[in-house]
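@channel sequence for tomorrow's demo:
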Amino acid sequence: MGRLEFGETWVYESIVTALPGIDVSRPFAIGLQLVLFQVGITLIWWVYDFPTETLLAGTAAVVVATLGSVEMLRISDLVRSERLPDAYQRLLFGSSIEVVLAVLAFIALVTYLFTAGTPETPSLVDRLFGTEPPVVAVYLTLLVLWDVCYRIGTAWWAAVVALWRSVRYRFDEGTARVLRRADLEVVGFATAQLVLVPFVRDQTVIVAVIVGHVVAVWLVAGLSAVLVTTRAEVDEATDTGVNATARE
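structure tokens (generated this afternoon):
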């Protein structure tokens, strides 16, 4: 990965570049993430003879986390390819709000997983791992779930900051086109999370949260894409000089 200044990257991007003496390509980092998680989940499923649904649910979570990594890098590349206001890039990359959102989502998820369920309706943990889940299975599950929650927090924050950017600034047509694509990548980023719904179909609260989050991102990022396009068109129609990259 290319070296970037801390405070100008998402936490995900900073972790690898912070390790001394290590400089790996993006495809390698993403492939390593996918392989390590998937191998770990498959081994646990095989060793403990869990039901097939456990393997499929774990694989779905790994796929969502990996797609999240790909989308985060695509979005950051698009944003960094243009001359954009410092305030926008600081909010998007340097505020670490996505981590705060991820922590809140993760704590809420763990609380629900270990408190929900009745003798008549077993919890998701009981259904996938039995009433006495092995420690190693719980550890890996929480690690993967954290990765998923981080991606969810990032998608939401990217959508909110994009809407703020599109309301506050106007861009020339070329820049607006790139930003519109970035906004649509955020929409795709969130949509991928719907892969998890079939595996939590009997958990009404989790289904409502996932679907509600995705719909909210669609609305916010979609509105941002519309605004950044229409405001650029109005800006060009009324501009009498050379278009600035961004104007308040």
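heads up for whoever presents: Confidence is low (pLDDT under 50) at residues 235-244.
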